[in-house]
Amino acid sequence: MSSQLDFYRTRATEARTDADSATLDNVRDRCLRAAAAWEAMAARAERSDAHRARAEAAKASATAD
Predict the structure, then answer these.
(1) DSSP letter assigned to residue 24
(2) Separation CA 1–CA 52 (nearest Å)
(3) Residue ranges per domain, the chain?
(4) Quick one: how far is CA 17 from the chain centroid?
(5) Pick from 7, 2, 8: which is nearest to 41 by CA?
(6) Which end of the chain has fewer CB atoms at under 10 Å, N or C?
(7) CB of 21 within 8 A of CB of 48?
(8) Directed axis angle between helix 3-21 and helix 25-64, to 10°?
(9) What is the structure's pLDDT at 65?
(10) Confidence at residue 1, expressed as pLDDT on a 0 to 100 scale
């Protein structure tokens, strides 16, 4: 797991916490939108990490043959 993925997940958690403690509807909505954006970035980072791992495994397999 990349540190970038950890960063994104941490920010999403913080945004959800901020949304839970917000007293104004517009602030809560903004925090929830931010949390969704951070979660989307985390999902992209996770897919990239998985793709990179598959590519490295394929490259290692090709050089072993």
Answers:
(1) S
(2) 11
(3) 3-64
(4) 16
(5) 8
(6) C
(7) no
(8) 160
(9) 66
(10) 58
> Hey, what are 9's tokens?
């997940």
Residue type, 9: R
What pLDDT is stored for residue 33 in this prediction? 98
Q: Is the pLDDT of residue 61 over 80?
A: yes
Under DSSP, the state recorded for 22 is -
Report DSSP state, residue 2. -
11: how many CB neighbours lie within 10 A of its CB?
A: 17
- pLDDT mean over 51-59: 92
Q: How many helices (H) and strands (E) does the chain have?
A: 2, 0
Contact present, 42 and 5 (Cβ < 8 Å): yes
Amino acid at 30: R
Which residue is listed with tokens 């939108």? 33
Q: Which amino acid is at 12?
A: A
User: Residue 1 gets which letter from DSSP?
Assistant: -
